[in-house]
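Same chain as my last thread, 131 residues:
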Amino acid sequence: MDFTRSRSAWDYATPLAQSAWDNYQKQWRIYGEKSLEILCDYTGRAQAAGVNSEFLQRTNEPGKGICQAAKSWQADLIVMGSHQRKGFQELLLGSVSNYVMHHAPCSVMVVALEPEQSESTEAVVEDYQVA
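reply #2:
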């Protein structure tokens, strides 16, 4: 009687899962690097205009992270964009700007993004996905 082990679905799934995880990490790294470039650019523009500014790139709940950073920096003002989602879409996706307005330790100015600005920000993810 031959008791050699036949290949199971697990034998095939493990390398596929590892490959998917590696691809996900690569995409996340590229996204983070591009986001960091954007943050550096905006900070440079603000400083060139004489506005004291700093940035912080974190991976956490955005609203809480923004409020925590503002508190630790003793910020006077938070300026942030809004996609202007309303109704059901806002209910499903939440609103970072709404959270920050209600929990920030300082004043908050929400700037309405033009539709093309909103789309170009979201396109960063699409432009840097790795197949």
